[in-house]
Amino acid sequence: MKVLAVTGYKPMELNIFKHDDERIQFIKYALKKRLVQYIEEGLEWVLISGQMGVELWTGEVVLDLKDIYSIQLAVIPPFENMDQRWPEPQQFAYQQLIIEADFYKPLYKGEYKGPYQFRAMNQWLIEKSDGCLFLVDEDYPGSNRFLLDVAKSKDHYPILTLTPADLEDAVLEWQMSDPRYWDS
């Protein structure tokens, strides 16, 4: 797999309402572990639309990994100024992301016009990637369900997942890496 689309929950779907919530570090840690595995197996590009939450955090992880690995990031939002109604910290993170990305291009010029822009983005991400990594609980897919449905409709398209159980494992691994964990 050379090109991987990545998506997942929005912060509010994870009950994360602050940009500095400590749970974000665990999500990023789990994403990093998975992405490093794929990079070492030949992954060259990560595609995201740049939406708040998992996609924005994925972009930040990829940018950090660029210091070590030859990996590229493409940010393809459905329309321009997607972040204009976001909280300021997320707007800042998004603006930094699109500045540092290897490729950035909104699918549609101009502002939000309708839900067709998100449907087109979902279709584009699936058509341009070799597989998709979802941070999802299939019993509660949230906004992921739209892209997940498109991915499921494509024959022989790899759907990879990070589940709540994977996140729990990542939290435990993170905690166990701290020597103080073993003192208690």
Would you give an account of this structure?
- This protein has helices at about 25-40, 55-65, 90-100, 115-130, 145-155, 165-175, and strands at about 5-10, 45-50, 70-75, 105, 130-135, 160.
- The chain is of the alpha/beta class and about 180 residues long.
- The chain has one domain: Rossmann fold.
- It has a six-stranded parallel β-sheet with strand order 4-3-2-1-5-6, with helices on both faces.
- Strand 1, helix 1 (about 25-40) and strand 2 form a beta-alpha-beta unit.
- The radius of gyration is 16 Å and the shape is globular.
- InterPro entries: YspA.
Give me the CATH fold name. Answer: Rossmann fold
Content of β-strand: 5-15%
Class computed from helices, strands and strand pairing: alpha/beta
Shape: globular
Mind telling me the CATH class?
Alpha Beta
Give the low-confidence spans. none
| Number of self-contained structural domains | 1
Mean of residue pLDDT? 94
User: Number of DSSP helices?
Assistant: 6
- Arrangement of strands in the largest sheet: 4-3-2-1-5-6
Count of β-strands: 6
> Termini distance?
42 Å
Named at the architecture level, the CATH assignment is 3-Layer(aba) Sandwich
Give the % helix: 40-55%
Largest sheet: 6 strands, parallel
Properties at a glance:
184 residues; alpha/beta; Rossmann fold; 6 strands; 43% helix
